[in-house]
Amino acid sequence: MNTSLNWIKDLVPDLECTDQEYMDAMTLSGTKVEQGVRLDKDLEKIVIGKVEKIEQHPDADKLVICQVNIGEEELIQIVTGAPNVFEGAKVPVVLDGGRVAGGHDGKLVDGGVKIKKGKLRGVESFGMMCSIDELGSTTEMFPNAAENGLYILPDDAPVGQSAIEYLGLDDLIVEYEVTSNRVDCFSVLGIAREAAATFDKKFVPPVITEVGNDEDVNDYIKVKVENNELCKRYVARVVKNVKFAPSPEWMQKRLRAQGIRPINNLVDITNYVMEEMGQPMHAYDLSTIAGREIIVDTAKNGQEFITLDGQTRVLDSNTLTINDAQKQVGIAGIMGGENSMITENVKDVLFEAACFDGTNIRLSSKKLGMRTDASSKFEKGLDPNLALDAMNRACQLIEELGVGEVVGGAIDIYPVKREGVNIPFEPEKYNKLLGTDIDKETMISYLEKIDLVYNSQTNEIEVPSWRQDLLCDADIAEEVVRFYGYDKIPTTLPNGQSTVGKISFKHHIEKIVKSTVEHCGFSQAMTYSFESPKVYDKLLLDENDEARKAIKIANPLGEDYSIMRTLSMNGMMTSLSTNFGRRNKDVRLYELGNVYLPKQLPITELPDEKMKLTLGMYGEGDFFDMKGFVEEIFEAVGMRKKVEYSPESNLNYLHPGRQANIIYDGKVIGYLGEVHPVVASNYAIKDRVYVAVLDMELITANASFDYKYKQIVNFPASTRDLSMVVPREILVGDIEKVFDQRGGQYLESYKLFDVYEGEQIKEGFKSVAYSLVFRGKEKNLEENDIAKAMKKILNGLEDLGIELRA
Amino acid sequence: MNEKLLEIKNNAIRQIKEASNLNALNDVRVAFLGKKGELTAVLKSMKEVKPEDRPKVGQMVNEARKQIENILEETKIKLENEALNHKLQAEVIDVTLPAKKKKTGHSHPNTLVQNEVERIFTGMGYEVVEGPEIEEDYYNFEALNIPANHPAKDEQDTFYINDKILLRTQTSPVQVRVMEKQKLPIRMIAPGRVFRADEVDATHSPSFHQIEGMVIDKNVTFSDLKGTLTKFVRQMFGKDTKVKFRPHHFPFTEPSAEMDISCFKCGGKGCRFCKGEGWIEILGCGMVHPKVLKMSGIDPNEYQGFAFGVGLERITLLKYEIDDMRLLYENDDRFLNQF
User: Fold this and answer.
1) Do residue B231 and residue A493 have CB atoms under 8 angstroms apart?
2) How many whole angstroms separate alpha carbon A491 and alpha carbon A55?
3) N vs C: which end of chain B shows fewer Cβ within 10 Å?
4) What region does B137 belong to: left with phi over 0, alpha with psi -120 to 50, or beta?
5) Where are the beta strands (DSSP E) in B77-128?
6) Interface confidence (ipTM) of the complex
7) What's the CA gap between B256 and B225, in Å, rounded?
8) What are phi and psi of B186, to 5 degrees?
9) For A706-709, which contacts have Cβ atoms below 8 Å and span 24 or more sequence positions?
10) Which residues of B sit in the known binding site for Mg(2+)?
11) CA angle A624-A628-A634, nearest 5°?
12) Digit-coded pLDDT (tens) for A441-488
C-alpha cells in the first residue's frame, strides 16, 4: 500500500511533521513504512516560466534563443532545441544551479543532473526548459505533456511559482507493509486514521452526501443476487448522460501520487474512490445490459467469457459472475466483460459497488491467473458496510465534477448486515498480558483515537465493523499498547517456576559426532532435502530399487526439486563434484540430514524422517581411512563393541568389490565404500571417492557413556606370532572371528601385521600374519596356558582351510 | 710423609682443573684414587710406617682423599652442566618453521550460529526440541490460527505433498506439538529446517532454517518477552546492542511484534550493511494467541506465554558478512574452511 503524504495531510490537517518523523512514528504504531520516496528528490529550482520571445540561433539550425519570463523583473535567456517551443508557451524552467531528475533521453540519473548557465554554440543560456521526463515522470502520468519536447503547461499556470508544487511533485510517496489483518488500511482513509491517532491529531474524512435527481434507480435496473454467501452486498446506481473530460488537476495529482495514470473523469473517479476508501467499483455501459437486469451467480463449469482486456477466460462453478438477463457481463470482483465495457460512446452508466467473499475472489483470481487491482482489494475481505458509502462518494464526485446526472436512489442488496462487535473492557487482563501498569482512562483514550468506543454502561468496547480483526482481549491489548508505545513496556525476565535447560540425548550425540568427524578433517555440508528423480539414474539404481519410492512434492519449483530424498548420496556427490570442479584438493565433507522414507505411496501419514550421517571424500585417504573414521565415531560415542564389516551390501552406486555393510551388535548400522567409478564420472569427479553413511538413530540407540573401570593388570604379557597361508576368499574378519571365539580368557588382543599375495605363496592363497598377545588377569601365565589357547585357535583355523606357514 | 701427601694432593687438584671433559676427569680419578692410584699406593705402603704413626698417617691420607673427592665431584657437576649446555645449544631449532598440522574440518556457519543460540537459551532454562520437517497441515497452519483459505497460507508459498501433508513452512508447529504434551511450564526452542517455494537467488532459498522459541507459564508477560529477547541479542551481538520492538501481525501471536537491533556493523549510524537505516530486522515475536493455547488444550485464562521465531540464515549472513545465501548450500571447501 502506498499513500501520498500530501493526501494524508489533507485528511489530518493539523499534522505537522517531517517526512522522517512521519515514517518513524507510523512504523512504531504498527503501520510499518517500507520506504518513502520524494517525487522531488532530484528536483531543485524549477519554476513556471513563459516564453516571451523566440529568435533563431545564429550558428545552429536546430537551436533557438528564448527570452523567458520567470516572474522576475528581467527575462532570462535560454537556448533550446525543443521542437515544440512557441512564443507564449508556459513551461517548467530549471534555473542556474538547479537540478532535474533525468536527461533528454528520459533516463533517470541517480542524484539528478545539475543545470548551470553556459554557452550553447556561443550563445549564453541561463537555465533549461524541461520535458516531463526531465522532471522524473512520464507522459503516461501526465497525459497532457508532449511526448517529445517541452512540457507545455496549461495557460493558467502561474508564472514564477514553483513548478514542482504546481505539478504535485512536492510530495512524499510512502510505501507501507500492511498486514493481512488490517484490511481497513488498504485505503488512504485507513492510513490517515492511523496517522491521526499516531500523532494525536484530528482526523477529518470527507463528508459524504447522497446526491441524485428525482428519478428512481429501480426504473432503470433490477438486481438479483443468487449467492448471498459469495456476494454479501451489492449496491447499484445509475448515472445518465455521461460527458467525458479529463478530471481536474487536484484529482490527477492525487492519482499520480498513488501511481495511477489519469485517464478520464469517469475512470478517475472510480480509481480515486478505490484509493481513498479501499472499495473497488465497476462501471457498465447500461445500454449493453440486456433486460435491464443484473444477476449475481456462480458460473457453469467450462463457461467461457471474454474480459475487457480481450482475453477469453474459462470459468468453473466456483467463479462468481455478474450477468444480465441473457449473458455474463463480468467476473465478480476481478474484471468486467468486453461486452459491457465503457466506450467513448457511452451515454448511461451502471455503477457497481459490491462486497464479494474474499476467499472466493482470492481462489478464483489464482485459478484464472488474474490478479487485478480490484481482486487484490476484495481478496482481503472488505467490510460490506463500505459499499454504499463508496458508491455515494463516487456519485458525489460525479456531480461535483459534472460528469453526468446521478439517478436518485440506490439498489442495495444486503441481506445480512454486518455489525461491529462488542468486547468486554478488561484493563487488568491487558496489563497482566503486557506486563504494564497503564490506567484505564489512558487505555480508553488510546482506543477512542481509532474509533473504538468505550461504553461505560455496559463496560464494553464497541468495535466498528471495519475492524474485523478485533475479537478478543489480546486484540484490544495490542491496540492499547500500539499507542502506548512498545518501547515503554518494561523489560523483565520470566520469574515463574524454574526449568532446566537441556538438549536431547540425540542432539548431544549429534554434537559429539560432529566434533569427531571435524577432527578427522571433514567439514560440514548442508544440502537440500529435495532433489530430482533423475539422480537415481545417476546413482545407477535398479528400476525397482526401494530408494526410488520417494515422496513427490505436488507443487515443486521444478523437476530438480520435486522429490524428497530417500538417500543422502546425491547431496554429498553434488557437493564433492562442486569442489572437484573448482579444483579444491583433498576434500572431506560430512552432512547430518534427514532422508524421508514413506510408509506408503501416495502417503497418507507422515513419513519416517531418518537422520543420516554422510561422510564423503576424495584425494588423500582410502577405504581403510574411511573405515578408521567410522570407528573413531563409534569410539567417541561409547560404542565399544567390535564393529564388523560384511561385503554383502550390494549397493549399485558403490564399487562392487569395495563396499561393506557396517555391522554393530548384529545390526546393519550403515555402509561404506568406494563410489562406483561410473557414478563418480556421472558427477564429473575424476578421482576415487569414498563415502560412509551411518544411521544416526541406531548410533544414538547404541551410544552409551556408562563406562566401568577395569583393573589394570601388571602381569607380564606373552606374544605369539602366527603366520598363515590362507585361501584367498577367506576374509581376515573370518580369522578374527576364530580368535574371538576360541582365544579364551587369556587372549588379550591381536594385531594384523602382514598380508601378502604373490611369489612364494601358492596360487589361490595369501599369506596373513598376526601377532597375538596373551596375559593373565590373576596370575603369571605358564607356557601350558598359552599352548592350550593356541591349539584351540589353530584347530579353528584349520577348519577354514588355513595352514600355518612353514 | 706429610710433604708427599701434600704433593700428591696438589698434583691431583692441578690435574682435575686441567681436565676439560668428563673422560679426562675420570682418568684423573683413576690415577689418584683408583686401585693403582697414587693415593691408594700411599695407603698400601702403610705397613712401612711405624705402628704408632699409622693412625695419624691414615687420617692424613683420608683427609687428602676427601679433599680430592670433593673437588672431583664439584668439577664433575660443572663439566656435566657444560656438556648439557653444549648439547642444548647444538639443538637450537627455527621455531618459525611451519607447524605440522592435521587438517581438521569445520562446522557449517549455520551450525555455529545455532550452537550459540542454543547455548544462550539452554542457559536460561530452555529445552531444545525438534519436530518433523514433513508436517501435517493442521500443525503448520490450522493449530496456529491459520485456518483453511487464510491469506497467510498464500503468503508462505507452501510446498504441498497432498491436501493434508506439506513441507513445514516454519518451525512454529513444534510449539503446538510441545504444548499438546501438556507439561507446563514450557520453555523451549526448536531449531530446524523449513521450506518455502522461493526461487534460489542471493537472498532466497527454498530450504532454510528457523529457530522457534516459546515460554508458557502462569504470569509470562510481553515485558518478559522484551527482556528475554533483549538478553538474547545482547549475548549474541554484543552488550551494547540496542533493540526496537515494532507492532506487527502474526496469526498465532497477539500482540505481535518485530524486533530490530542496532546495526552491529555501524552501531546504528547507518551503513551499507543496514541499508543506511541503522537498524536490522532480526525476528518476529508476540504473545501466544489465546486461540492457539486453547486449541492445544491449554487454558488461556490460567496460562499465557510468548513465542518468537528467528531466521538462522539471516543471522549467519549478517554475522559473518556473507553476501550471497547460495554459498551456504554449495559446500565449497574454501568457504566452509573459513568458519
Assistant:
1) yes
2) 74
3) N
4) alpha
5) 127-128
6) 0.87
7) 11
8) -120, 130
9) A706/A638, A707/A638
10) 254
11) 145
12) 999 999 999 999 999 999 999 999 999 899 999 999 999 999 999 999
pLDDT tens digits for range A353-374: 999 999 999 999 999 999 999 9
pTM of the model: 0.86
Topology of the domain comprising B109-337:
BirA Bifunctional Protein; domain 2 (3.30.930)
Per-residue pLDDT band at A270 (split at 50, 70, 90): very high
Helix (H, G, I), strand (E, B) or coil at B270: coil
Which one of B105, B124, B195 has the shortest CB-CB distance to A518? B105
User: Which helix (H) or strand (E) covers residue B222, if one does?
Assistant: helix B222-237
Protein fold of A717-804: Alpha-Beta Plaits (3.30.70)
Do B284 and B308 touch, CB atoms closer than 8 A?
yes
CA pair distance A640, A379, nearest whole angstrom? 63
Pull the grid cell for residue A732.
Answer: 581376515
Q: Which three cell numbers stand for residue A237?
A: 446506481
Query: H helices of A498-622, where?
Result: 505-519, 535-538, 569-581
A43: left (phi over 0), alpha (psi -120 to 50) or beta: beta
Confidence band, pLDDT 50/70/90 cuts, at residue B155: low
> Is B104 within 8 Å of A519 when comparing Cβ atoms?
yes
Distance CA B141, CA B166 (A): 10
Look up residue B130 and give its three cell numbers.
Answer: 525438534
Cell numbers representing residue A640 in the block: 565399544
Within 8 A of B228 by CB-CB distance, chain A residues are 493-494
- Could you count the other beta carbons within 10 Å of the beta carbon of residue A309? 12
The CATH code belonging to domain A505-702 is 3.30.930.10
Q: Which residues of B touch A599 (CB under 8 A)?
A: none
Rounded Cα distance between B339 and B335, Å, is 8
Using a CB-CB cut-off of 8 Å, the residues of chain A touching B285 are: none
Fold of A2-39+172-198: Phenylalanyl-tRNA Synthetase; Chain B, domain 1 (3.30.56)
Is A487 in the B-facing interface, judged by CB distances under 8 Å? Answer: yes
Rounded distance, CA B208 to CA A529, Å? Answer: 10
User: Under an 8 A CB cutoff, do A432 and B130 touch?
Assistant: no
